């Protein structure tokens, strides 16, 4: 039977955290660009394409966190029936979910996000555009966001607002930005956060 100790839990959490942060970086560097290429076959406006992908990232994290919260309540209720030992119930629940990620119905989240985006009035796309074309990106982001909730503390993204003051500690400017502009025109990618601190910067476009 496995024994629990804070030191061991910390090492496991640290290793898992590093892998998830690296995965977040890879999605930004590669899979985001693949999604851009797919959308560009239907949409000529690059700004609209980048806005769509940013919304997909935000919605993926929101959906995954909601699903995780519901699952954690269920798991804690089940484990509480016969939980014993020094390991806190909260930690036991997080460990259990981390080891049984198949409990997360990611397909349900993906479908809900796609339906929501297809009906989003803030995304003025041609009728023939179906966001199923970026299903793989949404799925990867949902799975990543879900796994990030099993960390102590969890990782999350910061939500941006168009027109906000540019913050160099949170964002990089895109190469086509006006580097003298003090305000964010729109967001390309969200920053990754831990307890209010920036772990990985996001990307924005600044314009006057």
Automatic annotation (TrEMBL):
Subcellular location: Cytoplasm; Mitochondrion matrix; Mitochondrion outer membrane
Domain Mitochondria-eating protein C-terminal: 17-206
Pfam families recorded: MIEAP
A GO molecular-function descriptor: lipid binding
Keyword entries, A-Z: Coiled coil, Cytoplasm, Lipid-binding, Membrane, Mitochondrion, Mitochondrion outer membrane
One GO term of the biological process aspect: mitochondrial protein catabolic process
GO cellular component annotations of the record: mitochondrial matrix; mitochondrial outer membrane
Domain of life: Eukaryota
Main location: cytoplasm
InterPro entries (alphabetical): MIEAP (IPR026169), MIEAP_C (IPR031981)
Family per similarity comment: Belongs to the MIEAP family.
Protein name listed in UniProt: Mitochondria-eating protein
Organism: Oriolus oriolus (Eurasian golden oriole)
Gene name of the encoded protein: Spata18
């Amino acid at each position: 039977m496995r024994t629990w100790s804070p030191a061991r839990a910390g090492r496991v959490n640290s290793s898992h955290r590093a892998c998830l942060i690296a995965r977040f970086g890879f999605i930004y560097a590669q899979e985001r660009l693949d999604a851009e290429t797919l959308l560009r076959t239907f949409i000529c406006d690059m700004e609209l394409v980048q806005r769509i992908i940013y919304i997909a990232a935000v919605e993926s994290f929101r959906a995954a966190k909601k699903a995780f919260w519901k699952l954690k309540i269920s798991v804690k209720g089940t484990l509480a029936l016969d939980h014993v030992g020094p390991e806190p119930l909260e930690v036991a629940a997080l460990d259990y979910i981390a080891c049984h990620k198949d409990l997360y119905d990611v397909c349900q989240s993906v479908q809900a996000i796609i339906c929501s985006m297809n009906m989003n009035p803030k995304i003025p796309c041609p009728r023939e555009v179906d966001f199923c074309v970026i299903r793989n990106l949404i799925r990867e982001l949902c799975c990543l966001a879900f796994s990030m909730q099993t960390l102590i503390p969890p990782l999350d993204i910061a939500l941006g607002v168009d027109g906000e003051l540019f913050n160099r500690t949170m964002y990089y400017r895109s190469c086509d930005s006006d580097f003298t502009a003090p305000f964010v025109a729109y967001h390309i990618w969200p920053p990754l956060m831990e307890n209010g601190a920036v772990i990985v910067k996001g990307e924005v476009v600044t314009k006057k």
